[in-house]
């Protein structure tokens, strides 16, 4: 049984997969989750092939019972939680007059509500880890859009701004118990989720997943006396 364990949501591809890979390389037992079972199983097999201890639990982050199942399966398998990565997210663009309620609700549920529910379901394990080593960590995936909202991505930006605010509140609430929270706020990262913007921003000018994993590795090694509440990742010359 690994000495440390982590949950990573949205882990079947892109940033989530890269963060899970970094945690596995660091010796963490992993529970990885994503909505689509087929791509999640493939990602989990890739991680296992590297020698990591991994279980995969497919779940829709808009489903409260599914979130509970992810945490329950993790608790049963590993019995502890040192790092929680709330990475799953969805962005659907629309003009103010064209918002569809189902897409508004989806973004609110997956991008924000799921994070609140994961804290609720995981806080006992995080508190135990915080008591043990004072360095329990929660990474909440926000976005540069949450710092600099743009037209047509208004709902997405609003959810990500809320993630930043919630992260700040969790630090004030839980730091004394050895639990640190950080909001990652990246601009465009070169993954399949940014294909829609490649006509405007070439892939070679985008951030890399290695930029995000480098930040995670840094956070895993800071002392208990150091809290990093927010990291903004932007391209050279990009204004917020």
Low-confidence stretches: none
The shape is: globular
Distance between the termini: 44 Å
What is the helical fraction, as a range of percent? Answer: 40-55%
Structural class by helix and strand composition: alpha/beta
Please, could you describe this protein's structure?
The protein is an alpha/beta fold and 240 residues long. The protein is built from six helices and seven strands, in the order E-H-E-H-E-H-E-H-E-H-E-H-E. The chain has a seven-stranded parallel β-sheet with strand order 3-2-1-4-5-6-7, sandwiched between helices. Helix 1 packs parallel to helix 6 and helix 4 packs parallel to helix 5. 42% of the residues are buried. The mean pLDDT is 95.
In short:
The protein has 240 residues and is an alpha/beta fold.
Keywords:
15% strand, single chain, 44% helix, alpha/beta, 240 residues, globular, 7-stranded parallel β-sheet, 6 helices
List the helices and strands and how they pair.
Layout: E1 4-9, H1 14-25, E2 28-33, H2 37-48, E3 54-56, H3 64-78, E4 83-86, H4 101-133, E5 136-141, H5 154-174, E6 179-186, H6 209-221, E7 230-233
Parallel strand pairs: 1-2, 1-4, 2-3, 4-5, 5-6, 6-7
């Amino acid at each position: 049984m690994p000495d440390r364990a982590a949950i990573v949501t949205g882990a079947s591809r892109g940033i989530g997969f890269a963060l899970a890979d970094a945690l596995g390389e660091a010796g963490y037992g992993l529970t990885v989750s994503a909505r689509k079972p087929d791509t999640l199983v493939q990602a989990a097999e890739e991680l296992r092939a590297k020698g990591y201890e991994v279980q995969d639990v497919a779940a829709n982050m808009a489903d409260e019972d599914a979130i509970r199942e992810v945490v329950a399966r993790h608790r049963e398998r590993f019995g502890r939680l040192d790092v929680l990565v709330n990475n799953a997210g969805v962005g659907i663009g629309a003009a103010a007059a064209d918002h569809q309620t189902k897409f508004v609700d989806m973004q609110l549920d997956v991008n924000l509500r799921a994070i609140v529910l994961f804290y609720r379901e995981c806080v006992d394990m995080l508190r135990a880890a915080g008591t043990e080593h004072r360095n329990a960590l929660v990474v909440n995936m926000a976005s540069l859009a949450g710092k600099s909202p743009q037209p047509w991505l208004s709902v997405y930006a609003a959810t990500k701004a809320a993630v930043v605010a919630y992260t700040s509140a969790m630090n004030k609430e839980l730091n004394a118990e050895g639990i640190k929270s950080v909001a990652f706020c990246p601009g465009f990262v070169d993954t399949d989720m940014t294909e829609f913007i490649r006509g405007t921003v070439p892939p070679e000018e985008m951030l890399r997943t290695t930029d995000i994993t480098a930040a995670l590795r840094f956070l895993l090694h800071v002392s208990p006396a150091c809290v990093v509440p927010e990291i903004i990742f932007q391209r050279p010359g990009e204004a917020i």
